[in-house]
Amino acid sequence: MTEPLLSVRGLKVGFRHRRGTDWVVRGVDFEIRAAERVALVGRSGSGKSLLALSLLRLLPLNAVAEGALFFQGTDLHRVSHRRMALFRGSGITMMFQDAPAALHPVRTVGEQLEETLRFRQPLASANARAAALELLRQLEIPDPEARARSYPHQLSGGMCQRVMLALALACRPQLLVADEPTSGLDPTIQIQILKLLRESQERSGFSLLLISHDRRLVERLTHRSLRLEEGYLTEESRPGPG
Ligand SMILES: Nc1ncnc2c1ncn2[C@@H]1O[C@H](COP(=O)(O)OP(=O)(O)O)[C@@H](O)[C@H]1O
Ligand SMILES: [Mg+2]
């Protein structure tokens, strides 16, 4: 067995009150290996987003987390803010639940992609532009040149999600956390986005944590499922992805 990429031990996430802490995630252990696709399922409000945000130390200010979070052996709960900032993106990248709000409103799609690509590696501007268009093409975005000149408010929900995925891929993460990447989209668009996620994962080989309240939607795409219920995780194994 190879070393897990991410190993979470005794993770608790909750909200502090005057008289104590209300724990939403009450102590969970799990691992994600290199190139593995794992689903995180559970009903709305069960704490899936909080769990995901805690992996990046991006919890709301009134939230607290305890436990250990080993990424390739380093406990992310113990590294400096500066190291954590560098680690976001290249180590773990997140596609947030509310995609349109996560995009910069007054920068074009092309600008945002080029900036992300150049943050990751030094690129001449012509090369960054070509790489941005290539990503849009990979995500089957029609007329990529025109889309690169668009602002987020000019895009449909499905197109926003493709752009979010393009931005995530531009980071070349080792682990991509996709929080409800298809919520609010039409069923046919949902299937397209999930297919693109899977193809991207197979092409690039990152690990994927795919979060959804809809277990049936994500289980076909992943190797195994973790279910969050009453603050605890249970694992559901199954014979290989379809
Ligand atoms: N900033 C916050 N302050 C207080 N409670 C919160 C906050 N964010 C989330 N919660 C509560 O934490 C619980 C889990 O939320 P969340 O992680 O968003 O669930 P899920 O993603 O599974 O739908 C919910 O009961 C929610 O109301
Ligand atoms: Mg959520």
Summarize this entry quickly:
By secondary structure, the protein is an alpha/beta fold. The chain has helices spanning 48-55, 81-90, 99-102, 109-120, 125-138, 144-148, 157-170, 187-204, 215-219, and strands at 6-17, 20-32, 37-41, 63-71, 74-75, 92-95, 175-179, 207-212, 224-229, 232-236. The strands form two sheets. A six-stranded mixed β-sheet has the order 6-7-8-3-9-10, with helices on both faces. A four-stranded antiparallel β-sheet has the order 2-1-4-5.
- In spatial order, strands of the major sheet run 6-7-8-3-9-10
| Radius of gyration, whole Å | 18 Å
Instruction: Indicate the proportion of strand residues.
Output: 25-35%
> How many H/I helices?
9
Describe this protein with a few key phrases:
4-stranded antiparallel beta sheet; 6-stranded mixed beta sheet; 242 residues; 37% helix; alpha/beta; binds magnesium ion; globular; 28% strand; single chain; binds adenosine-5'-diphosphate; 10 strands
Account of the 3D structure:
This protein is an alpha/beta fold and 242 residues long. It has a domain at 103-172. It has 9 helices and 10 strands. The protein has helices spanning 48-55, 81-90, 99-102, 109-120, 125-138, 144-148, 157-170, 187-204, 215-219; strands at residues 6-17, 20-32, 37-41, 63-71, 74-75, 92-95, 175-179, 207-212, 224-229, 232-236. A 6-stranded mixed sheet has the order 6-7-8-3-9-10, sandwiched between helices. α4 packs across α5 (125-138), α4 (109-120) packs parallel to α7 and α7 packs parallel to α8. The longest helix is centred in the C-terminal third of the chain and has 18 residues, at 187-204. The two termini are 23 Å apart. The mean pLDDT is 93. Bound molecules: adenosine-5'-diphosphate and magnesium ion.
